[in-house]
Amino acid sequence: MYPSPTVAGNTVWLGLPVKDLSGVAESLLGIDARTGRVVARRPIQGVSFAPPAIAHGTVFLASMHGLAAGFPAAHGRPASSLGRYRSRIDAAHRWESHEDGVYSTDDGGRHWRRIYPRYAARVHRLSRTSGLISVGSPAPACGCATRQLWTRDKGKTWRRAAIGESFVGNQGAVYWWAGGSLFRAAPGLRSSIRVAHVDDAIVSATIAADGVLALVDRPGRTPQVILAQGGDARVITLPPGPANAVVRTIGGSGSDVHVHGTYVPMSAAGAVRVDWSSKDGGKTWSFTDLQSPGDGTGS
Prior knowledge:
By secondary structure, the protein is mostly beta strands. The protein has three domains: about 5-70, Beta Barrel (Thrombin, subunit H); about 75-160; about 175-299, no CATH class. About 0% of the residues lie in helices and about 45% in strands. It has no helices and 27 strands. It has strands at about 5-10, 10-15, 25-30, 40-45, 55, 60-65, 65-70, 85-90, 95-100, 100-105, 115, 120-125, 130-135, 145-150, 160, 165-170, 175-180, 180-185, 190-195, 200-210, 210-215, 225-230, 230-235, 245-255, 255-265, 270-280, 285-290. The strands form seven sheets. It has a four-stranded antiparallel sheet, with no helix packed on it. β6 (about 60-65) and β7 (about 65-70) form a beta hairpin. The radius of gyration is 23 Å and the shape is globular. The model is unreliable at about 295-299 (pLDDT under 50).
């Protein structure tokens, strides 16, 4: 089964989702519509059943493990504005994922250096010399997940990290989660220990002043936060809010932490935002319903 082709001028663009009879691997093909001759071929290293798209002179093809882009190459294009494609430890030291690789700057963006040759689905800089990226190329054996790679020498070498694709960290520690389990990676990122487990799903986490805070979404019940410090953890139930509130993000800086969610009240036509906030690193919390600003309660 092949995706629909896309025609641009005299060229027909086609995603080849499986190896063809000659043994050529998955590719993005450009075919001359007048002669039938293949005029361009770029490996996509992943399965794709979507038709190519063309914008501003570049052909894009989405695959299960990322985005193939080419003809011409995407060198120098800006990174996406989405947070997962950008990471910084301060104003000077940043990473960005571009269409043609992962780039690093140590001087606030005046100079950039490519530290990984392919697009990354996520970048996370941990320190001036170390960081993590999630990549889908070459495709992992299961065909439906990313691989996590880490460097401790500014991208000169990359090693496989034995962690899941949902993670947060800094120079001191890396935490990751799957389902209701929260893990702390051992030095070297080759093994982990489970520091907490809950019956519901962990949906987000953030590094806090005293460790990591992991957000637990509990449908029909008050959300919880796991506060983990080293190998110890405790579960905090947030102040009561709407029974149908859905929470998805937790973030902050230092001791200021915020949980954002939404719910649909009976009297409103659309969703209303609700926030839980902490000023002491997650030890105590207050709740605000933005339909009725100022209604906060402590915990």
